[in-house]
Amino acid sequence: MLKTTLNLSNPDLIKQHCLIKDGWHAANDNATIKVSNPFNGDVIGTVPSLTTADVNDAVTYSHKAQITWAAKTPQERAQLLQKWADLIDANKEDLAIIMTAEQGKPLAESRGEIGYANSFIRWFAEEGKRVYGDV
Hints:
Number of domains: 2
Largest sheet: 2 strands, antiparallel
Mean pLDDT: 93
Structural class: alpha+beta
Number of helices: 4
Shape: flat
Strand order of the largest sheet: 1-2
Low-confidence stretches: none
Helix content: 40-55%
Radius of gyration: 18 Å
Distance between the termini: 44 Å
């Protein structure tokens, strides 16, 4: 993708690889799928077309990451979720531009969706601190 095509303040938000384990990776066979803007048909990027082995690796590493996450205290988890929400807020306009290009929806709708989704992240960050004894 030409990162300048979308005129983003932070073009590094565009990732054309998959986050597996500790970094961004292409498919093992380097196969990709084009991502097109449904409004005008422009190709705005590519994503890896993962093989079964790629997906199995992702699941394995995700399971290991969940064990690490489970070992964190509720306060540590809340802090990480709040940091994530802060990053979303700091990049909300660029994220809305990307969402609009990927989905063809109006920019105002994308902006609203970003804010609404981020409110849930913040809610769960706070709610996770509470211990009710339920499982």
